[in-house]
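Model it.
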Amino acid sequence: MEKLLTPKQLSELLQVDQSTVYLWTHTEFLPFYKLGRSVRFAESEVWEWVKQRKRKSSGRATMKYDINALSR
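Modeled.
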């Protein structure tokens, strides 16, 4: 099995804030593993997720999530 990345490692890899990684995790926008109270990410799955988000047009990407889930 491949080595799993921490949220900090993933944020550095994708060059986004760590808070963005946590938001994407909380809204289940990207694939992750829950290990107790920690979350981890398989690098190969993250790159596949990134490839799926490639846009051909200049349209805006949107995240779909349940706003009620955020208030819990």
